[in-house]
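ok trying this again, last paste got cut off
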Amino acid sequence: MAIGCPRALSGGMMLAVALAGAAPAAAQQVQITRLADFAFGTVGVDADISSSKDVCISSSGVLGRYNVVASGSGTNRAFTLAGAGAPLAYEVQWSGTPGRATGTALVAGMATTGLTTTGLGLNLGCVLGNDSASLIVLMRSSELSKATAGPYTGTLTLLIAAE
């Protein structure tokens, strides 16, 4: 239990990734690498918590344009964690720049379009170690304060498509 907090929450989040090409760019491919689980461990409930992971998006298209659709494991694809108590909502953000702690809020099931990565070819930029985006997960204290002590888990699915 966190010091000074009446409850603690431990949990992790698994990520699933699906890749697809949009109809107009069917010949183009995009790829995401270096995606990892988020594990918050035991946390207090009196402050927001967030975690950011750098990922590499590569594209076979010259312009490197892509979009991302995020879906959670909650009802109607909501970003929620299930556990000992009621589901806990979390927020997902995306930045087209690595090393960011904040980004554009993603809406479950809705495409965030107009994103670009380097046109170095499929996976070449990633092999060279060039991360190109940040995936940020944020849990607000208002949600954490509703938690019952115990583990909470959820799945976040990302669909990356060429534009």
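PB: full thing came through this time. Residues 1-13, 15-23 have pLDDT under 50 and may be disordered.
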